[in-house]
Amino acid sequence: MKKTIISTLLYITAIVISAQETPKPVIGISCSHPNNSYSQVSRTYTESVLKAGGLPLLIPIIESEKALDEILSLVDALILTGGEDIHPQYYNEAPIPELGKVNEVRDFYDLALIRLASERGMPMLGICRGEQLINVAFGGTLYQDIPSQCADSTVNHRQSISSKYPTHYVKLLSESVIATITGETELATNSFHHQAVKDVAPGFSITGWACDSIPEVIENISGRPIWGVQFHPEGHVAGGDTIMIRFFDFMIEQALEYKKTKQ
After folding, report:
1. How confident is the model at residue 21 (pLDDT cuts 50, 70, 90)?
2. Rg of the chain over all Cα atoms, to the nearest angstrom
3. Span 13-30, mean pLDDT?
4. Neighbouring C-beta atoms of residue 235, cutoff 10 Å
5. What pLDDT is recorded for position 262?
6. How is the chain split into domains, by residue range?
7. Domain 25-262, what architecture?
8. Is 0.85 topped by the overall pTM?
């Protein structure tokens, strides 16, 4: 009888402790749209979120804003991933010959995600194309092609080796959020792009540059929890980097704060 009572008390205690545990935040991850036929994302993104203590939720390519908004109601932060070029019609320019492949369905989907997440006050991190999209969504412009539009060619922004390996440095403003997150004012980063932020969007500031002066980091300065980086921290995390994981640790912290406001 005594053993039964003790076992029951231990069981009840376990349930109470479990109920008091803070549920892991859900991190929405945007997908790419290969051949206009399916949705996909690299495991480097999902594994980075898991490693930082979050639960990744892939948001499929769909054209219904209502459905996207319903999905975002399940999410506590949003990560916008890399991919194709963004059509210059979204920043009032005509395409130049050097413009790469674009995907108008994905452009619509990504820009809708940004707008809907912003309306909710949701934390966002844009990576590579994701950073460029954030800049465009809020009124900024892009270099459609760095090699043909920028004179300085000292940095190869389209490395051929794995994203685990850095190929250039990014200088950060010491007072920036990204410098605070990483504890660094200079980051060794990878590079997989030929477009970049040109005119930064109103309400945002450029807080990191490659040594050829190409913008690599943007941060919102009007109170919105939105950040963007041109490089791929998730690639470095896959290689065991202990600094780049801090981007995802930070997003988990932001997601937990946002989660409290939802409750």
Report:
1. low
2. 20
3. 69
4. 25
5. 81
6. 25-262
7. 3-Layer(aba) Sandwich (3.40)
8. yes
